[in-house]
Amino acid sequence: MARGEQNEGLEEVFVDAGDKSESAPILYRAHLQEDNLVNYDSVLLAIIGLVLCWFYFIGILVWLYIPYRRWYFRKQVESTELYITPENLVLRYETPSCASASRPRSVHFPLRHIVQVDQSQSVLQAKFGLDSVYVHTSGGGARFLFGAMYHFAGNSDIIGIEDSESFKQCLMKAIADCRRPAVGQPFLK
C-alpha cells in the first residue's frame, strides 16, 4: 500500500497486548508525511530558538540542537507505524540512539475507551500541508512527547497523517463497530 488505505484482505499482524500475544487484522494502516513533518518540526524549533535568543542567547543552543533533532526525528518517523485493529488504535515506533541499539515501543489505545476524535490545522501546519487528529480517551494524567505524536495519558495529538480525513472516518467506524453489541447479546451487561 502506497498511502493509508483500508485493507480489503485484512492483513494479519502480530499485536502485543501486554503479556499475552494475539494476531489481529489491520483495518487501516496510516502513513506519515515524513519530509513535511521533519521540516515542520525544524521550523518550529527555529522559531522557538529565535524567541529564546532575546532571552540570554539560549536560542543559539536551540539552533545548534536542530541538526541532531532533524536526524533523530527523521529516524523516529521512519520507524513509526500507526494502524487500527478491531480492538485498538496502535502506535509502534523506535527511539533512535547514537550509542546503542534503538528501543522499540508500542502504545495501544483501546477503541472502547476513545470518546472523541477531532481534526484541526494550524497556520504553520497548513503551510506544510499537515493536519492534526486529536484522539480523546476516557482518562487523563501525565504528558510525554513523541515526535509526530504528542501522547497524553488520556489524549493524543497525531500530526502529519497522509489522508487524515479517511483515517478519521475509518477510526470512527471501528469505534462504532467495537461498541455495537453482537447479535443476540444484550446491549448492557
Q: What is the helix/strand order?
A: EEEEHHEEEEHEEEEH
| Helicity, as a percent range | 25-40%
Oligomer: single chain
Class by SSE composition: alpha+beta
Radius of gyration: 18 Å
Mean pLDDT: 76
Distance between the termini: 39 Å
E-strand count = 12
Please tell me about this protein's structure:
Helix content is 33%, strand content 33%. The protein is an alpha+beta fold. It has a 5-stranded antiparallel sheet. A 5-stranded antiparallel sheet has the order 8-9-12-11-10, with helices on one face. Helix 1 runs antiparallel to helix 2 (58-78). The protein is elongated. The chain starts with a strand and ends in a 10-residue tail after the last helix. Mean pLDDT is 76; it is low at 1-21 and 141-148.
Short structural description:
With 189 residues, this protein is an alpha+beta fold. Helices cover 33% and strands 33% of the residues. The longest helix has 21 residues, at 58-78.
Detail the topology: elements first, then pairings.
Elements lengths: L4 E2 L5 E6 L2 E6 L2 E3 L3 H20 L4 H21 L2 E4 L3 E8 L7 E8 L3 E7 L2 H6 L3 E6 L5 E4 L2 E4 L2 E5 L4 H16 L10
Antiparallel strand pairs: 1-4, 2-3, 4-5, 5-6, 6-7, 8-9, 9-12, 10-11, 11-12
